[in-house]
């Protein structure tokens, strides 16, 4: 686990004094984050990483990227099997092409900046506070808890919902052009799938639901991706888009499903097989 002194050397402590969780500066940041999460399920903390480390952040991501599982997949927005029995007009029957790739946690060095951030107790405490939770747990998945999302030119990370309730991410290398983060705030709830609205977005007639973010390297994004349909739009130019995914949950022991893990990483581990029949905290499609 990263020591606080080490984290202070990574995070811009003038803007985000994680060492002083009850101080006026951090409390103000938390209030803003909570208000924006309540409003749209998404917020950005610009310049979270010290500017002098942005080049190192990018270079580390470039070294990790070749370890990603590169496999174009036919998927749906719920990441459930395409042959799942669904009504004819269900948006889960709309097939998308997933061209992004993931570097799994077991291929991310412990001394990488993103690993040091993710495992730091002060960072986890700050994220819990931002989400208004008494406690927060690392997503226990040995592959998906921390990963690097790689979107190559000509590819995209298509519309989807997250398995875990809370996602924290950081662009480490932007695309040359394209690669915009697009999301539909709270398009579904724990009680309602709101299938008509989801179908509208997937078929191109739901522009009214879509918001867009231009993210810069070192910005920290907090997001409730289980309820907000989202994607990374197609990447153009010569450069890959890289982003670190710091996955958290409010319940311990959560891991990804067998189907989704195989899609993302091309392999599953005993941890995934052991919870294949686990019940989620809601009844939504995954």
Kindly describe this structure:
It contains 8 helices and 15 strands. The model has no long low-confidence stretch (mean pLDDT 91). The two termini are 31 Å apart. With 286 residues, it is α+β, with helices and mostly antiparallel strands.
Identify the notable features of this structure and list them briefly.
8 helices; 286 residues; Jelly Rolls; seven-stranded antiparallel sheet; 15 strands; four-stranded antiparallel sheet; globular
State the share of residues found in helices, binned by percent.
25-40%
Strand proportion, as a percent range, falls in 15-25%
Listing every helix as H and every strand as E from the N terminus to the C terminus, the arrangement reads HHEHEEEHHEEEEEEHEEEEEHH
Give the low-pLDDT segments: none
Provide the CATH top-level class.
Mainly Beta
Q: Radius of gyration over alpha carbons?
A: 18 Å
Mean pLDDT: 91
The largest β sheet comes out as:
7 strands, antiparallel
**CATH homology superfamily name:** q2cbj1_9rhob like domain
* C-alpha termini separation: 31 Å
> What is the molecular shape?
globular
Please provide the count of β strands.
15
What is the CATH topology descriptor? Jelly Rolls
Tally of helical runs: 8
SS class: alpha+beta
Q: How many separate domains?
A: 1
CATH architecture: Sandwich
Strand and helix map with partners:
Elements lengths: L3 H7 L13 H17 L1 E4 L8 H11 L8 E3 L20 E3 L2 E3 L9 H7 L1 H10 L6 E2 L7 E6 L5 E4 L5 E8 L3 E2 L2 E4 L10 H8 L8 E3 L6 E4 L5 E4 L2 E2 L4 E9 L8 H8 L4 H5 L12
Antiparallel strand pairs: 1-12, 2-3, 4-6, 5-15, 6-15, 7-13, 8-12, 8-15, 9-14, 10-11, 10-13
